[in-house]
Design a protein that fits this description.
The protein is mostly helical. Helices cover 77% and strands 0% of the residues. It has one domain. The chain starts with a helix and ends with a helix. 12% of the residues are buried.
Length: 112
Amino acid sequence: MNYFLLFLCVIGLSIGQVLFKKSANILKTLDAPWKILFEISFISALAVYGVTTLMWVWALQHVSLSRAYMIMALAFVIVPTLGHYVFDEPLTMRFGLGVLLIISGVVLTIRT
């Protein structure tokens, strides 16, 4: 259950990053930067980050930081993958190799 919660934290932060990128794209079109405060994507990103932070703190009660933070490395896989599907950002073979190395590292470091 604890690792499931940590994985939900990674998913939440990844979704938050996509929402922040969407906000950044919207910001380019606004006539005043402060108007970003009223954009649903920005408000949603803050809300997702807030809830995810609370989940992270709860999870840290049950899992050591050294193991929990290794799970966060999965965000380096999830965020670019979401960027590819949501914003049509390119993925390369080098990225694929990096993904394999990251996942291998996470598996090696969290195993007891």
